[in-house]
Design brief:
381 residues; alpha+beta; SH3 type barrels; Alpha-Beta Plaits; 3 domains; three-stranded antiparallel beta sheet; 12 helices; elongated
Length: 381
Amino acid sequence: MNKFLDFIKAYDISLSQLLTVAIIFSVTIGVFLSIRFFFQRYRKATPRPQTIKILFYLSFDKPLQLATIAVGFYFLAMHILTWFRFTSFFDQVVTPGVNVALALCFFMLMNTFLSRLKAYSITKTTRTDGGYNNFAKIEQIHKLGQVLTAAIMVFILAAILGLKVSQGIAYLGGGLAIFALVFKDTLSSVFGGFIIYLDSPYAVGDWIYTIDGTIEGTVEEISWRLTHIRTFDKRLIFTPNNLLITQAVVNASRMSNRRILQYIGLRYDDFDKFEAIQKDIYTYLGEHPDIDQSCLTLVNVVNGSTNVGPTTEGFFGGSSLNFSVYTFTKVTNWFKFQAIQDKIMMDLGRIIYRHNAEIAFTTMTLDVPKPNVESIPEAAQ
């Protein structure tokens, strides 16, 4: 205690100055805790689903807390450093540092709001009818907002550090030239990401694969350098963007319909019933609510170059009369498509059995000459 009093006397610190510092510290802590408590209560009280206005208000949570600490530190440093005659340190280090912290608060605010807005937009535009979800425009707007925020942040930092815009551009150009020479592949991947955002060949959630079949899966994230692709065995592939813009990529998610293509074989004993079965299947598919009637629907005999099972057969197959069912569903969602296809296949089987016909299976007929057949009883005796 004596040392503390000696310290106060040595630097001629009055009681009012100590009290001012204590008040500033207490107010800073109080405001910080109040902001934190307010946003906790506000987050619980907000209705569901949240609106864009609410998302913007919620984005102020962390930035305001950081801004409170920065402002409180500024006033504390201003008083305390004055006691030790460190005014030059305050002007040259503390003031720019606090300004940088406040600029960081702006960056945090915008980045948080853009992320919340992206999630909100994806939720609002997600289709529930099994159709294709195109989130490419949302991704483009999100990345554009990030670029604009980063550009504004750069100019703010340049102003805080006292750099002229022309001087900063010159430094930036020189740095980019060196970066381009050293990290050529990385820069090409970044440029590839820019092209992907402009052309939007695929978006997050799309099922894509390359023509050569080396990469296939669902897009989870498109960053500036990499595209994160989750394969169907749940492995994650980090693919440089320049690889995906230099080869053909199939976007399977953007199909307009899903195709049903099934081969069915009837017994040869049901040859006279085939035309009636064919007509009933046409009628059934033409009245089905999940079949897209604007697309082609066929129920035809197969030709001699069609792979039916392990062999290539035509209508008159080795063990069956083969025909194909070719049609398209309205939904593209894989899970819903499987359920629809299952129901259609079961109904087609019922149509066949309704005509007292049967679906053929592989059989083998032993053709024995008639004289030999007549001599079998005698041989048995």
